[in-house]
Specification:
- By secondary structure, the protein is of the alpha/beta class.
- The protein contains 11 helices and 8 strands.
- Strands 3-2-1-8-7-6-5-4 form an 8-stranded parallel sheet.
- Helix 10 packs parallel to helix 11.
- The longest helix is centred in the last third of the chain and has 18 residues.
- The chain starts with a strand and ends with a helix.
- The mean pLDDT is 97.
- It binds 1,3-dihydroxyacetonephosphate.
């Protein structure tokens, strides 16, 4: 059985005190759940977040990571630095990293390799832009994103991979993919993994949906058979909303 997961990507929001306050609220209101619940605060709050959540099932995730082990890369953060503050999981390939920081599939393949070498969990994000969907190119585009960044991995490495399908047109726009659109793409992603590896591996991979998930729409999206949870942006910044989404899984 694959894992159900609800993860909050806080992006560039919440300073240290705000991080601590939101974590305190989340701890108080987290319901009993079989799902894995994760939050990704910003780098400057990672250590405090990890410390605050040591006695909680909520896991802490980093939002990005450099591909090299160390060296003259001013402003960057390595895998071992993230691990040294207790965090063993990282989001890679987010559309905002791709759009604003020039991260392409080839670079992401290297980052994924570095994370795997360091035995870290990867939440790998991908998804089409509106133009791709309008022109009917969305399946091809998604397939190429997976192929270029992930399909060089040995089957064994996939135990560390969580996928997050995030159509760019649905991120922060209030417009979600319909549950049917999400299911259709998630099913396609699973089929593509089965074709490149095998059905057992494809069936074991958690595929999250991300893009304007809210308490009001989460249950319907999560009810689809190939949707194993969500990667939540805006609605993860308020305890009540995030917990509402956790309850929907
Ligand atoms: P929103 O939930 O704000 O649309 O963001 C989704 C996202 O980018 C999560 O990584």
């Amino acid at each position: 059985m694959r894992k159900k997961i609800v993860a909050g990507n806080w992006k560039m929001n919440k300073d240290l005190a705000e991080t601590q306050a939101l974590i305190s609220d989340l701890k108080k209101s987290l319901p009993a759940t079989d799902a894995e619940v994760k939050i990704a605060p910003t780098f400057t709050s990672l250590y405090a977040a990890f410390q605050a959540l040591k006695d909680s099932p909520i896991e802490v995730v980093a939002q990005n990571m450099h591909q090299e082990a160390n060296g003259a890369y001013t402003g960057e953060i390595s895998a071992s630095m993230i691990k040294s503050v207790g965090v063993n999981s990282v989001i890679l390939g987010h559309s905002e990293r791709r759009a604003y920081f020039g991260e392409d599939d080839a670079l992401l393949a290297k980052k994924v390799d570095t994370a795997i070498e360091n035995e870290m969990e990867v939440i790998f994000c991908f998804g089409e832009e509106l133009d791709d969907r309008k022109s009917g190119n969305h399946f091809k585009l998604v397939e190429s994103q997976l192929k270029n960044a992930l399909f060089h991995l040995k089957a064994d490495a996939w135990k560390n991979i969580i996928l997050a399908y995030e159509p760019v047109w649905a991120i922060g726009t209030g417009e979600t993919a319909s549950p049917e659109q999400a299911q259709e793409m998630h099913e396609f992603i699973r089929k593509t993994i089965a074709e490149n590896y095998n059905q057992d591996l494809a069936d074991s991979i958690s595929i999250l949906y991300g893009g304007s998930v809210k308490p009001a729409n989460a249950e319907e999206i999560f009810s689809k058979p190939d949707v194993d949870g969500g990667l939540i942006g805006g609605a993860s910044l308020k305890a009540e909303d995030f917990i509402g989404i956790v309850k929907a899984i």
